[in-house]
């Protein structure tokens, strides 16, 4: 039996020509060649649209950048042909007819790179008699490949079967992760922290009906912002300038306090519900009718009324103008909706997806996410990051020890000190003032993001996960 040759080719389009960047060839099942080539043209010489196209390919498709690679571009053809057939010939412009064995051996792992679905390339592949290795079943790349190959009705028939799976890629990988935990470790996930997308959880329930759904607190917090902004759009009279109007600044502030109410009471549902209302009643308080029972007491309280109370200057305290009565009428139902026990119960525990992000960041410290790394480096970075993320810097010493490096007392001291600093920094970041300052900055950013998301279609819309 002849073992086929697998080829994977990635690159960029420059001046309508395909510039090979990376090639991986597996010949006869054992001979693996992998090259990343330098760029034949300096980046500055590319036109705007070529740069755009190259950046797109790098960011969304193959993860390679123009500057990547060490092997001179002049060697491309020679190395690729050597890798594919084990001898030299010019494979794109054959000077001699192919022998039968050359024809039949090659299988191309074809994807949706423009370079590989262009008509002339498809023709060349066909003429060479290469076979095409299809992509994994749920690969969305397939849609684009097939769209270029099939006619409209054929594509529709194919997509009606494939499309459902393809679009459910997140669902599919989540199911895989849940099943993998059982196979590998005999352990079962008990909780699933969602971000508002219901499809995944519904599928998980079919797999294991005991999984409990939790909400990512950050995503829940976003809901109040989107609800308030929506209300402002539909009720023209509540926005605008003036005292007690629903301004963007106020929306951000209400969002922050809503988030805090959930986070600070992550083990106490009753208090959480109560705290959600705190800011509402604080904001509608007047000199005649102060309603600060729920506001925290003491001289350090954020509530100025409570502060005045603590230092005994309550008599001279003047309330700022309360929320406009029309504003009150509109936002009260929103607060009622978002203080429902059913929703807040899923926020108990104060789960977020922050840990995942924090872990990702630890990996990126070793391996910047925007530059291309080989599989080995990724593996080393991920494993080292896991050690540091879970246990601090001591395991790094252990790794060095296993590699045969003698660890002296100084190294041990540095590892301890580094851990200490890490904890101190984290504690500093947790102080009240720093959090407040951070929130302000965060909110400004969130606002931009949220406006964008609302334009994109409602991903985190209220009620979407109920
Ligand atoms: Zn108050």
From TrEMBL:
Domain of life: Eukaryota
InterPro entries hit by this protein: Mutator_transp_dom, RNaseH_sf
Pfam family, one: Mutator
UniProt domain Mutator-like transposase: residue ranges: 167-303
Listed GO MF terms: nucleic acid binding
Protein name: Mutator-like transposase domain-containing protein
Organism for this UniProt entry: Cyphomyrmex costatus
Source organism phylogeny: Eukaryota, Metazoa, Ecdysozoa, Arthropoda, Hexapoda
